[in-house]
Specification:
The complex is a heterotrimer of chains A (293), B (265) and C (332).
Chain A (H helix, E strand, L loop, with lengths): L6 H4 L3 H29 L2 E2 L7 E2 L5 H8 L1 H34 L5 H13 L2 H12 L4 H9 L12 H26 L3 H8 L4 H12 L1 H16 L3 H7 L6 H11 L3 H32 L1
Antiparallel strand pairs in A: 1-2
Chain B lengths: L1 H28 L16 H7 L2 H34 L6 H13 L2 H18 L7 H26 L2 H9 L4 H30 L2 H6 L7 H9 L5 H26 L5
Helix pairs in contact in B: 1-11, 2-11, 3-6, 3-8, 3-10, 4-6, 6-8, 7-8, 8-11
Chain C lengths: L6 E10 L2 E11 L4 E5 L6 H9 L6 E6 L2 E2 L10 E4 L11 H11 L4 H14 L15 H13 L5 E5 L7 H18 L2 E6 L2 H7 L2 E6 L2 E6 L1 H6 L4 H6 L4 E6 L2 E5 L5 E3 L7 E12 L3 E8 L3 E8 L14 E6 L5 E3 L2
Parallel strand pairs in C: 3-8, 3-9, 6-7, 7-8
Antiparallel strand pairs in C: 1-2, 1-4, 4-5, 9-10, 11-12, 12-18, 13-17, 14-15, 14-17, 15-16
Helix pairs in contact in C: 2-3, 2-4, 3-4
The chains are: A mainly alpha (293), B mainly alpha (265), C alpha+beta (332).
Chain lengths: 293, 265, 332
């Protein structure tokens, strides 16, 4: 009975109305309305001579182009592929890390966790830049490989899809570890003892108890990596070079290099459509985890 | 059990090395005498000296700082309101839309938010004659993006705390506003401070939205860094990175202290 | 001051979705009494208390406090204070600031607040702890701070939501007497919500038993124990043997009203049976006796002889006897 509060439901005072209205209006004006504009513009045509370079209209030509031109289709598919594989690698690295932190001495945990979070507070751009120096042709990694005796291996990682994967894993690792840690930390370890007591081997206990119970964290972590990775621009731009096509970079180039605003808008719409599924899943999960508190 | 834990701690150590080696190398090379990152030519402060005499860099940093202060403050106010509504007002017309609107910027690709906000500002210029693209448009963009993060922190904190504290205040004669001021707000303070810091960091760091909505005249620090690193490795950027890492560490330690100083429930 | 009840609830009803938490409740609470609302979890007692405090508005019906209609008046304007089950002490304020919170809201001047805070803390014997934070107090001390905070404004009515539930057993018993002493000393009306029938019986001058949103019976503890009006109340308070007497009527018979004997007793009612279980409780033992028709009757008997743990042994054939006025006839 205590859980159900009806007070606010029946009377919403003027003060509360103002508190609702303030962020509501802000988001309607600066978040919702802009999307409507993107939608309108995506149906227009490019007109390089006018300012802004757009002619409004109602045609699906931009979308038709996106689906017929090989370049865009490849960009779409490789965005999804790169995001998916990087997410998987991040999970494989992040899960043992979160597991180890959750099993560490409780007094040490805040420090261990802080070490994971700290890079997130430093500049994203600078962290990616750090890899440029490492991966360059004469960079430290290649020098190290040469020193190890792979001297004749003259290939460079910078400018390949490998570098993009590396960059995504590096940049988004904290987003994977944090939700995983949150679920693993709450896990009742006596369940594992119970499983062992009932005859489960350590691996069996892990697969039948720990893994299923940490599934919410796995899903949340994967979505938090996958969603931004699909639309990533900085990483493919700085680490991927010209050979890597990703949708975020295509949008950027259409907008800044080709000044084709309607086509860039259409790319934005497609990117959103691509992400509607994962985003809805993510929001539903967030709502559920807040309820569970 | 032991074997699995040992494996996990091994991966943890590898993970930390993976996270920090690149950063440490950047810091080390900020003291390198050579222009190349490939050669260590001896210890030198010359890039530090160059950075602090780089007028473009300083004015970009000053602009970023001002934008960060303004947008962090605005998004803390708006995020407090949004988080409060999400946690405490169970139903009103448009509640579902409100919830999605608050959270959506968190998961929206930045390129999409960037282009859409630019279109809004261009439209504003066409039909209303303003605001000018620059400080104001960048602050608006950053605020829209980071208020979600503040709202989440506030909502989580409110969901955590005992509702009967507010009821007790009202029971003792406090009006809803006084209850908010004397009980809810003090309890939320640590969340607000860490929300503000997060919003400030996000603003200082943002490149993509800023690049879209900034006008011709304004160049923030990330924009300058981006245009410089596109051309290759620049030792002054190493110096900048070192400073950023130190500031981030201090900010994180402060917000960690605040989290621990949180009053017991 | 108006005569009449301090609280009058008239036809109050409250629904949460499909659940009716409070179902057409009428209740009057007399000035100066210690009234208890007793019931299991989810019976609506807390909702009813929150209605008096102003945290819930009834869907229909009225709440009158001291003759004034308070339905729909927000909590901060009601002459009522509440002690919360969780105590709800403000963690960011020290004990003195917690206790003085209500007076500060009224704009009482500082010296007066300090004086009255000291007085309230003395009343609950916490004079020395004014500067501590709630986190630095024991459970019992917190409970007393919450109490001091709730009585400092001398409310017309003090509502206590499970005031003893968070204390351990030993402390609970002492605190019961303390609460009753305080209530008499201050002359306030207390309304206590509890699920613990022993607590309600030992403290309250009157109590109401609630079930499924309704008040099923109101009366003194003695009334409710000896003259329950329904099988629910007879069963909820203490232990009762309920015997069907035909035509939808029953008889509630308390275990201690039945005498055990080896020979057929001369009482108007007697049954023969066999002892199937004995629970030794120290001062007395509870016997479960199987009688004809597969029924089991519960009988208690005082253990007056030190040498033996109980007067009867398991498997023994015994007679149960009781007088005409030993039981309470029930219609429902």
């Amino acid at each position: 009975m205590r859980g159900s509060r009806s007070m606010n439901r029946t009377r919403i005072s003027v003060g509360i109305r103002a508190v609702i209205a303030l962020p509501y209006l802000w988001l309607a004006l600066f978040f919702l309305l802009p999307f409507v504009l993107v939608l309108i513009l995506s149906l227009g045509t490019n007109s390089p001579d006018s300012v802004p370079p757009v002619e409004l209209g109602f045609s699906f030509n931009n979308f038709r182009r996106l689906f017929s031109d090989h370049l865009y289709v490849v960009a779409w598919l490789s965005s999804l592929r790169i995001a998916a594989t990087s997410t998987l690698v991040t999970l494989l690295l992040g899960y043992p890390m979160a597991y180890a932190i959750s099993r560490a001495d409780p007094r040490r945990r805040p420090l261990l966790l802080m070490l994971v979070v700290l890079p997130f507070w430093t500049s994203f751009l600078i962290r990616i830049y750090a890899w440029m120096g490492l991966l360059a042709e004469n960079g430290i990694l290649n020098q190290f490989l040469r020193w190890l005796g792979f001297g004749d291996h003259s290939g460079t990682i910078l400018g390949t899809e490998w570098a993009v994967h590396l960059g995504i894993v590096y940049a988004y690792l904290p987003f994977m570890v944090l939700p995983l840690y949150a679920t693993l930390e709450k896990l009742d370890w006596s369940l594992l003892e119970a499983a062992a007591d009932l005859g489960a081997k350590p691996l069996g206990a892990f697969l039948t108890v720990t893994l299923p119970l940490s599934l919410p964290g796995i899903v949340a972590g994967c979505l938090m990596v996958f969603i931004p990775a699909v639309g990533e621009f900085v990483i493919p731009d700085l680490l991927g070079g010209t050979s890597t096509l990703m949708i975020g970079k295509v949008l950027w180039d259409e907008f800044f290099t080709n000044s084709d605003w309607p086509l860039a808008s259409a790319v934005a719409i497609c990117l959103l459509v691509l992400l509607v599924g994962p985003i809805t899943l993510f929001q539903r999960q967030q709502a559920k985890s807040l309820e569970r508190r | 059990m032991i074997g699995r834990a040992r494996f996990a701690f091994g991966v943890l150590a590898f993970g930390y090395a993976f996270l920090y080696l690149p950063i440490l190398l950047v810091i080390a090379y900020s003291f390198n005498d050579s222009r190349l990152v490939t050669v260590w030519a001896g210890f030198s402060f010359k890039w530090w000296h160059a950075l602090f005499h780089n007028e473009d860099m300083l004015s970009a940093a000053w602009l970023s700082l001002r934008i960060g202060l303004a947008s962090a403050t605005l998004s803390t106010i708006l995020g407090l309101a949004a988080g409060y509504v999400l946690a405490r007002v169970p139903s009103f017309v448009g509640r579902t839309l409100f919830g999605s609107l608050v959270m959506a910027p968190m998961v929206m690709p930045e390129v999409v938010m960037g282009i859409s906000l630019l279109l809004l500002f261009v439209g504003g210029e066409q039909f209303l004659g303003g605001p000018d693209r620059g400080f104001v448009s960048i602050v608006i963009a950053h605020t829209t993006f980071s208020l979600a993060f503040v709202a989440i922190v506030v909502q989580a904190r409110l969901a955590d705390f005992d509702r009967s504290l507010e009821e007790a205040a009202m029971d003792l004669g406090a009006t809803p506003w006084v209850t908010f001021r004397t009980v809810t707000l003090p309890m939320l303070m640590p969340a607000l401070v860490s929300g503000w810091l997060l919003a400030f960091t996000l603003s200082l760091d943002d490149l993509i939205m800023t690049q879209f909505v900034s006008g011709a005249q304004s160049q923030t620090l990330p924009m300058l860094v981006y245009s410089s690193v596109r051309l290759g490795v620049d030792p002054q950027i190493n110096v900048l990175a070192t400073i950023v890492v130190c500031i981030a560490a201090v900010a994180l330690i402060i917000s960690g202290r605040l989290a621990r100083a949180r009053p017991a429930r | 001051m108006a005569a009449g009840p301090i609280v009058a609830i008239e036809g109050a009803e409250k629904r949460f979705g499909a659940v009716t938490a409070v179902d057409r409740v009428d209740l009057e609470i007399v000035r100066g009494e210690l009234f208890a609302l007793l019931g299991g979890s989810g019976c609506g007692k807390t909702t009813l208390l929150r209605m008096i405090a102003g945290f819930e508005t009834p869907d229909s019906g009225r709440v009158l406090i001291d003759g004034e209609d308070m339905t729909g008046v927000p909590p901060h304007l009601r002459p009522v204070n509440m002690m919360f089950q969780s105590y709800a002490l403000f963690p960011h304020m020290d004990v003195a600031a917690n206790v003085g919170y209500g007076l500060r809201r009224e704009g009482v001047d500082k010296g007066e607040i300090a004086r009255r805070v000291a007085e309230a803390l003395a009343l609950v014997r916490l004079e020395a702890l004014g500067a501590r934070k709630p986190a630095q107090l024991s459970g019992g001390q917190r409970q007393r701070v919450a109490l001091a905070r709730a009585i400092i404004k001398r409310p017309k009515l003090l509502l206590l939501d499970e005031p003893l539930a968070a204390l351990d057993r030993k402390l609970r018993e002492g605190t019961r007497f303390e609460l009753v002493r305080l209530q008499e000393q201050l002359g306030l009306t207390f309304v206590i919500v509890t699920h613990d029938q022993e607590e309600a019986m030992s403290m309250a001058s009157r109590l109401a038993v609630m079930n499924a949103g309704r008040i099923v019976q109101t009366g003194t503890p003695h009334d409710l124990y000896e003259r329950p009006r329904s099988r629910f109340v007879a069963d909820f308070i203490g232990v009762a043997n309920i015997l069907a007497t035909g035509q939808g009527k029953w008889l509630a018979l308390r275990p201690e009203k039945i005498a055990l004997s080896a020979e057929r007793p001369a009482t108007p009612h007697a049954l023969n049976g066999r002892i199937v279980d004995i629970a030794y409780e120290g001062g007395r033992s509870l016997y479960r006796v199987a009688v004809e028709g597969d029924r089991v009757m519960q009988v208690t008997s005082a253990n007056v002889v030190r040498a033996r743990s109980s007067a009867w042994s398991r498997g023994q054939q015994v007679w149960l006897g009781w007088s005409d006025d030993a039981g309470q006839p029930l219609d429902e």
